[in-house]
Specification:
By secondary structure, the protein is an all-alpha fold. Helices cover about 75% and strands about 0% of the residues. The chain has one domain.
């Protein structure tokens, strides 16, 4: 399961929890969590479409090793 799928699954769980919550304040918090996880899913999807290679920044110790 990809990060996108995991985040969307959690968002759906939080939405379901919000719908069943009686306390309006808690319902609002569950809704907010669901929205946050949907945003994470969207970002994970965009990240999955890019081809980014992480290279750590050069430090003094890395420069010595390369020389």
């Amino acid at each position: 399961m990809t990060f996108t799928e995991q985040y969307r699954s959690l968002a759906a769980q939080f939405m379901a929890r919000a719908r069943s919550e009686q306390n309006p304040k808690l319902r609002s918090e569950w809704d907010f969590l669901a929205v946050c996880y949907m945003r994470l899913a969207d970002q994970a999807e965009r990240n999955g479409q890019t081809d980014v290679v992480y290279e750590p920044p050069l430090t003094d110790s890395n420069v010595d090793k390369q020389a």
